[in-house]
Every structure is written in C-alpha cells, then in structure tokens.
Amino acid sequence: MATEQRLRLIHEAIFDMYRSVKLADRLGSIARSTRELESADASAVMLTDEEAGGLVVSANDGLSDAYASRQRIPTATALKIYQGPDKHVILDLRSAAAGDQRLIRAEGLVRVLAVPLAFAGELIGALNVYTKDPAREFDADDIEIAHILASAAAIGITNARLYADAIRQQEMLAETEKERQQFLSIVSHELRTPLTPLKAMAQLLRSRVRRHRAEGAPLDLDSLDRNLATIERQVDRMNGLVNDLLSVSRAERGALQLERAPFDLAGLLRDVVSRYQAATAEEGRHRFAVNAPDRFAANGDQSRIEQLLMNLVGNAVKYSPYGGEISVSLADNGGTVEIATADHGIGIPEEDLGRLGHPFVRGSGRAATFAGMGVGLYVARLVAEGHGGQLALESDGDEKGTIVRVTLPP
Fold it and tell me: Facing residues of 330 across strands?
C-alpha cells in the first residue's frame, strides 16, 4: 500500500474512531482499521479486566468467537511483555506464545505485532496485529502505523470511559435528586397528616369551651377525655416520625449512640401494646395477644428498644387494615432474646423480603398504597444490630401475613 494512501486511511481511521463516544463502537472501529491498514489476517484490542485477572479480547476483526471469548493474558505476563507506551513487541507465537497456546494453534496464528495501550503511565490494554503467514514480517511502516493507532486508541478508549463515567454520574445525580424530591414529599405528607386531626380536635374543644362560657352548656368530660387522647396519640405519632428521621440521620453519620442500663423488657413490651390497644379501640378491628413472662430483665437502651417495639407493632397494625389478631411474644431462646410480632395482614411478596429494612425502601404492590416513609423497619434493624442482634422478616406472600423476629443477646 502506498504511503500516501496509508496516511489518508490513518486519518480516516482516527476520524471514524472518534465518530462515536460509545466505548464498544470505538473498540470495533480500532480493530477494523488496524486490520485494514496493516493488511493483516486479524487484529484485536485487548483491555485489562480485573475479574479475569489479565488482558482479554474486547474487540477484534478476523478472529474466531472461540478464540476471542477464551483467550487471556495474565497480568503478570502482560507487564513483562509490554514494557512501556513507546515500546512494541513482535512475538513468534509458535515459540513464544502469549496466552493459551492451544487456542493460538487452533486459530493458526504465527506472529503478532503488539503495542501497549497506556494511560497515565498504567497499562490499560494492547493493540495486536496477527499474521498466519510464516513468511510475513512486520516492517518499519507496519510498526509506525501500529504505534500511531495505539496512541489514538488509548486516548479514544480513555475518553469514552470518562464520558461513560460522566453519564453514569449524571444519571446517579438525577436519580438521587428524584429520590430526594420523593422523600421530601413523603416526609411533608407524613408530618402534615397528624396535624389535620390535631387542628380539628383543637377547634372542637375550643368550640365546646366557648359554648360553655357563653351559654353555660355543660362540658362532656368523657368526650373531652377522648378528644385529648386523640390529640395525645397524634402528638406521639409525630414524635415517632421525628425520632425515626433523627435516628436515620445519626446512623448515616455513624452517630447513633446507645445508652445501656437494666430495665424490664416484658413491662416495656406490654406498655407499647397497650398504647396500640387504646389507639385502635374505637375502630374495633384489631385484637392483641401478648405472650411474655411477668418480668424479663434486660440490659440495653430502653428508649431505643421502645422505638423498635413501637415501629414493629405499628407496622403490624398498619399493614393489617382489615384487623385480626396481632401477636407479640417475648422469649428466651437458649441464651438469646427473641421478640416476635405476627399479623394476618397484606403480607410481603418474596421479591421484597430482601429489600425491606433498608433506608427509605418501601414494599411494592399493595404495600406502596399505604402511607409511610420507609424508615420504620430500617430503624428497628439499626436498633437490633446496635444491640448485637438482628432483624428478620417472614411471610408466605400476598395476603398471608407477616412475622418479624428480632433476636438480641441476653
């Protein structure tokens, strides 16, 4: 091939290489152009692969699928062969094979001209030119062209990777912003929800007090007590939401602290259940069963364990909207403490079991229609793990209820 023609083809090859920003497109263009310019039987772009532990064929022109998919040059061997970005090597593959000798023989390859691809002084791959003709020698022009193409390829590959990384970062930022907006929307909704009945109760009570003062209308103390109990429950709900958010924030900063002290776990468990019994009494859909000893001496952060219990019993109530029995048990299982809550509610699909219990992750399907921020189970898991225990979910699927087990050291 005439020098002028080769120069024109080199210019066209580099232009074609940069036509696309996709790495796969650039690799394919490099391989095709190299084979054409070198009038070779085959060419390949090999790139480093950490999982494979060496260089693998990432694009080729003229090689069989079997060879391209299976050939590998171990990292240690590659570093010995490729001495630097301005170096090249010509190997007689019949006696100095680089890679699997059986694959080379089966492919019929005789000789290779190889130029390393480097970025910032590190080996990122190699550009290989193969011949199957024993009489073929690579001359000075062949070598010069290979170096030119390898330099352009190294830049093109690096730029394509940087572009792909930038796109991934952009997508991640966009997804993070989307999740942030969704989270703020959920949080604002969850924090506003208790405010509506609070304001309604306050307006109702003020109206009754005004009538009492203006008209002497008697105050219904039983009704007043129920109204105040509703206010108290809504305040407790808001307090629980804020505490959960603070716990998540502290955990992400590594600042979730536990203050351990002796306390009666059985008494705490009954107190939490009694609060939900009172909160759901007017609805009359739920029944509560507690299986626990009269007293159970524990050592831990009582306020955090209370937060754990409130979240678990609260979830059992929320996700069993048609009611039924909610069982809460406490037992000593051979040296470990087990707390379990069981409901007959909507259950958990198998694909969700491994996802739940992580920050801001909510169930799919029907669970997604319920209010919530996706932090309750996560906080419960943080508290369990902070005490050296663990939290596990069990469910046979949709509409088959859920069991949550928390195991703690004694």
Answer: 339
Whichever domain contains 41, its CATH number is 3.30.450.40
For residue 166, what pLDDT is reported? Answer: 82
Across the chain, mean pLDDT equals 83
Statement: residue 331 has pLDDT above 90? yes
- Same domain for 145 and 8: yes
- Is residue 303 one of the residues assigned to a domain? yes
For residues 43 and 21, give the distance between their C-alpha atoms in angstroms, rounded to a whole number: 21
Domain membership of residue 134 (yes or no) is yes
Q: Across the chain, how many H-helices and E-strands are there?
A: 12, 13
The answer on 345 and 317 residing in a single domain is yes
Segment 126-171, tens digit of pLDDT? 999 999 999 999 998 889 888 888 888 888 888 888 888 888 888 8
**57 and 13 housed in the same domain:** yes
Residue 270 near residue 292 (C-beta atoms within 8 A):
yes
By CB atoms closer than 10 A (0-12, 13-18, 19+), residue 207 is exposed
How does pLDDT run across 43-62, given as a tens digit for each residue? 999 999 988 889 999 999 99
Q: How many C-beta neighbours within 10 Å does residue 152 have?
A: 20
Place of tokens 């989270």: 183
Cβ-contact 143, 113 below 8 angstroms: yes
Predicted confidence (pLDDT) at residue 313 exceeds the cutoff of 80: yes
Burial-class residue 346 by CB neighbours within 10 Å (0-12, 13-18, 19+): buried
Beta strands in 292-400 (DSSP E): 297-300, 324-333, 336-343, 390-394
**Alpha-carbon gap, residue 191 to 195, rounded angstroms:** 7
Predicted TM-score (pTM) of the model is 0.51
Token pair of 278, please? 């009172």
Give me the domain span that covers residue 88: 3-168
Distance separating alpha carbons of residues 296 and 409, to the nearest angstrom: 13
- Quick check: 15 pLDDT over 70? no
Count the alpha carbons within 13 Å of 91 in the hemisphere toward its beta carbon: 22
Domain finish residue from 251, 274, 299:
251
Alpha-carbon distance of 78 to 71, in angstroms, equals 13
142 touches 155 (CB < 8 A): no
pLDDT in tens, 94-106: 887 678 889 999 9
Same domain, residue pair 240 and 265:
no
| Count of CA atoms in the C-beta half-sphere (13 A) of 386 | 26
